[in-house]
Amino acid sequence: MSARGVEADELGARLKVYEGRPAAVAGVGKDPVNLPMIRHWCEAMGDTNPAYEGPDAIAPPTMLQAWTMGGLSGHTGRTGAYDELLGLLDEAGCTSVVATDCEQEYLRPLRPGDEVVFDTLIESVSERKTTKLGAGYFVTTRTDVRAAGELVGTHRFRILKYAPARRTPPAPRPRRPRPVVNRDNAGFWEGVAEHRLLIQRCTDCGTLRHPWLPGCNACGCLEWDTVEASGEGTVYSYVVMHHPPFPAFEPPFAVGLVELAEGVRMVSSVVGVPYDKVRIGLAVRVEFRTYEDDEGTLVLPVFRVVEGDG
């Protein structure tokens, strides 16, 4: 084994010691669950579910982590173990970090007035992994959230703490990022591969929804079918990406939030006009683009500005 490999193994053994250690004990949410924060969240997400309004309002389940955040001043209950773990990684050259994913489990809704208490555990530290970003370690924490002594939800959060890889000349044919396909959205991507834009429809209340979800966010029904969108829409909002640059993309370019004629919104590229000509209200039409790389064929929907509306 090389000296570098021995060093990595030694670091990995030191990191494994932190598995199972608490990162926060009896942490207290900065604020009780409250309607103003719920309103701000719903406005930011565009969520108009009536369950989040009025005297019987509940908090959106996906706000679970928001009630535990310490903000710039931090929160009570921190043990120092997590900071020590990150410090070891910093000393080993793993000075960069990226959040990779999170998982949440909901046991009961939070309601305005609930006081949130939480415990956070360092659940796992991976072996040394080599990624395109660089070599490092995945660290997973689990936060158990309680209200009135009752477990209301669990939040798992995973980061990659890594040493940035040395920059290499760009590949001749950069590969476009692949969408994350799972059991909840596989039908959408199957439709895209057939050049069809499919929207989920609740079979109970008829509400259309996008992105695809396992259940209706209007009535909670788990049964659904699909309708094929016309592909017509308008630019509801947009951003122009300048930085950071990604392989297979040439900034600046426009990314739009497109409102389809059926009423749902979808994020995708806006093409057909220069990035600085994109405007809210532009009429667009879906266009399916095919890319070939070493992983096979990739079909993606983009939205082209309708001729005469640019």
Care to describe what's here?
Helices cover 14% and strands 38% of the residues. It is mainly beta. It has two domains: 3-164, Roll (Thiol Ester Dehydrase, Chain A), CATH 3.10.129; 186-305, no CATH class. Strand 4 and strand 5 (134-147) form a beta hairpin. The mean pLDDT is 91.
What's the total number of strands?
A: 14
* Unreliable sequence segments: none
CATH superfamily of the largest domain: Hotdog Thioesterase
Would you tell me the structural class of the helices and strands? mainly beta
Identify the CATH architecture of the largest domain. Roll
DSSP strand (E) fraction? 35-45%
Report the radius of gyration as a whole number of Å.
23 Å
CATH class of the largest domain, named Alpha Beta
For the report, how would you describe the main beta sheet? 6 strands, antiparallel
Helix content: 10-25%
> Judging from the principal axes of the Cα atoms, what is the shape?
globular
* CA distance, first residue to last residue: 61 Å
Number of helices: 4
Order of helices and strands: HEHHEEEEEHEEEEEEEE
From the 3D structure, determine the CATH topology of the largest domain: Thiol Ester Dehydrase, Chain A
Q: Tell me, rounded to a whole number, the average pLDDT.
A: 91
Number of domains: 2
